[in-house]
Amino acid sequence: MESLRNEEQRENLMRFFKTAPGEYGYGDEFLGLKVPETREVVKAAVKREASDACIGPSEREQARPKVRAVKDIPIDEVPALLMSKWHEVRLCGLLILVEKFEKLATKRLENDEKAIRGRDEILTMYLRYAERANNWDLVDLSVHKILGHWLLLPSNLGDRDYKIKVLDDLAASDNLWKQRMSIVCSWKTSQQGDPSWCLRYAEIHLHHPHDLMHKAVGWMLREMGKRVSMDLLRDFLRQHAHEMPRTMLRYAIEKMPEEERKQWMDAKTF
What we know:
Order of helices and strands: HHEEHHHHHHHHHHHHH
Strand order of the largest sheet: 1-2
Helix content: 55-70%
Strand content: under 5%
Shape: globular
Structural class: mainly alpha
Number of strands: 2
Largest sheet: 2 strands, antiparallel
Distance between the termini: 54 Å
Number of helices: 15
């Protein structure tokens, strides 16, 4: 990944992810890789068989170093990626965990004991290194596919009460990114028709002070309404629209008809 470094793109990413003093991403360091380039590295790292095929970042940059496919990277090597100072390398580690989890979460393997143990191992590692997902993109590209999916599957770690405790601990953390995990993981549960996780953690974070959480909660409420029930979303808004931060409310109602959006933004009740 270091061989793919792009200085111009690096400067753009550092501005985009707010790395200046006083901003939420302060201190983060970038190589300057776009997400598709990182995904190509992941694709190579999780291949089941060795390959001599070369994958280049683009046709225009054929002279740049290329990524060679390797055998499936052992899970115990992933922490070295997660502990990297480079943002994109940490993302690579997280996406490798996503790929490994998804391979063990197919319908055929849902109740397979070996797959359950593998998923629990990945989930445990993900939580152990949760603070290394220290920007919104690192959370949003991984948490619903690992933690969110795990909530819906059999686990040897514990039952639903245990899973609630896992999310409660994240939500109660003083770490912004762990807090974001507790709500954004509901993207997956809402996709699968379960609104309970979204509604619980949207209410818990209703008065969160950070704009990034306002956006995350509103986004997840919008997805819950879209995937499960707009009536459930409206019920939530009837209870809470008057106290929701405007950004959160604006995100939550984004897919509603324009006239209804205006009414909600005026905090009118139905």
